């Protein structure tokens, strides 16, 4: 099919994909991986697992992140960012699959948004809007780091997946396990990072008056030592339709992304920005269901404008009564 015969949204997608192809490869990853210990950093040899079926070996491929050797790559596929953009522009999933040469039944989350600014803090360009999605990364602290965690990164996106906030956090306790394989956090990334108090204040300000979307969001709020009205929370791990995926138990975000969104996430190091986007996409996919469940528990949504008018009316009534006296 020729480009002139495609829809305007398809043309946008084609232009976006063409820009994606021009991205330069990042610096070559080392064969060594830094493993933090209590008394310093131990250098150990990385273990490279055999490639999954369907992958092709690429020569001179540079690792995407420090500490990760990328000798094998899966075929290019839509990302959570691209999926949100496509949904906003009414582009069917089958068109995305055709553009990437993959089946419409599966895809892999790869970074897409060129505007992401790691550790930027509060975005100076994106609007938060009514709905925001949060995801955090943790590191291990204390003598048993598998059992004790501290906040190391916070990412927040808006309804359309735009980055609203992203910051690394300086833990108050000594880090005994950076969990780099999963968290993507390294000693270098935490050097000069924002203090816990600064990040806590930034996030608290963003939460004011917002509907908060998250996956097991209670853990994120506890790590930040913050609260949020329960009626203003939409948790994808507690949504009945999604719990059915796990036989009534709490489903993992990775599992939901695979079975509901048909995308793969968290294959190695986590990206809290992409995880927040995947969580928002899960909410959007089942938004009406979320609101029905919410209304069962909390009743009709609060109308802030009507509440304000009612409050003004009560104030006027009080003034009139005082005047009569």
Description:
It is a single chain. The chain contains twelve helices and 14 strands. It is an alpha/beta fold. The strands form four sheets. Strands 6, 7, 8, 9, 10, 11, 12 and 13 form an eight-stranded mixed sheet that branches. The protein has a two-stranded antiparallel ribbon with strand order 1-2. The chain has a two-stranded antiparallel sheet with strand order 3-4. A hairpin with a 7-residue loop joins strand 7 (131-141) and strand 8 (149-158). It is globular and about 45 Å long.
Any idea what the radius of gyration is?
23 Å
**Quaternary arrangement of the chains shown?**
single chain
Shape: globular
**What is the mean predicted local confidence, pLDDT?**
73
**Uncertain regions spanning at least 5 consecutive residues:** 23-49, 55-78, 102-113, 304-308
Q: What keyword list fits this structure?
A:
single chain; 325 residues; alpha/beta; eight-stranded mixed β-sheet; two-stranded antiparallel ribbon; 19% strand; globular
Q: Would you kindly provide a brief summary of this structure?
A:
The protein is an alpha/beta fold and 325 residues long. The protein has 12 helices and 14 strands. The protein is globular, with a radius of gyration of 23 Å.
List the helices and strands and how they pair.
Layout: H1 8-21, E1 32-37, E2 40-45, E3 56-57, E4 72-73, H2 80-88, H3 93-100, E5 107-108, E6 121-122, E7 131-141, E8 149-158, E9 163-170, E10 175-177, H4 180-183, H5 187-190, E11 194-195, H6 196-207, E12 211-214, H7 217-224, E13 233-235, H8 240-243, H9 253-261, E14 263-264, H10 272-285, H11 287-298, H12 304-324
Parallel strand pairs: 5-14, 7-12, 9-11, 12-13
Antiparallel strand pairs: 1-2, 3-4, 6-9, 7-8, 7-10, 8-9
